[in-house]
Structures are given as structure tokens and as C-alpha cells.
């Protein structure tokens, strides 16, 4: 569903829900911050696997690129720039 919502003219945002006041602004190991809003800048469905085998597999992973305009830290989890 999120892939269909990412038309170029429609802004889309997501956030990480904090479950308590003490949980607000908690930084996760991956670099994301609870309670912050992130703009969705791109969504792609990526086939899993390598080479020609990946072309015939139906397993896909939805990748979401997000940006935090107030952020001072960068995502450092899987598929990060690091």
C-alpha cells in the first residue's frame, strides 16, 4: 500500500511512536529517533537474491528512504552509507 501512496505530488511522512514520555527522543542503535517525524523521499520494491536467480524469484523487500530535516545523526543500519 505504501508504494501506491508515493505519487510524486503527494507528501508522505512517518514517525516512530514513543510509548511513554520517558521514551520520547530515545535514539535507537540504528540512528532513528523515537517521536521524530521523517519525510518519505522514495519507496522501492527490491527483488531478493543475486544475479539471474533474483530475476525469477518473487520474494521482494520494500525499501523506504526517509529524511529527518531536523536530524543531526545518520542511519547506520543495514543499507546505510557506511
How are the elements arranged and paired?
Elements (H helix, E strand, L loop, with lengths): L12 E3 L21 E11 L3 H6 L3 E8 L15
Antiparallel strand pairs: 1-2, 2-3
Task: Please provide a written account of the structure.
- The protein has 82 residues and is mainly beta.
- The protein has a domain at 13-67.
- The protein has one helix spanning 51-56, and strands spanning 13-15, 37-47, 60-67.
- It is elongated, with a radius of gyration of 15 Å.
Short description:
With 82 residues, this protein is mainly β. It has one helix spanning 51-56, and strands spanning 13-15, 37-47, 60-67.
Q: What are the key terms here?
A:
mainly beta; three-stranded antiparallel sheet; 1 helix; 82 residues
Provide the spatial order of strands within the biggest beta sheet: 1-2-3
The total of helices stands at 1
What string gives the helices and strands in order?
Answer: EEHE
- Poorly predicted tracts of residues: none
Q: State mean pLDDT (0 to 100 scale).
A: 76
Strand runs, count: 3
Distance between the termini: 29 Å
Give the overall shape. Answer: elongated
Helix content bin: under 10%
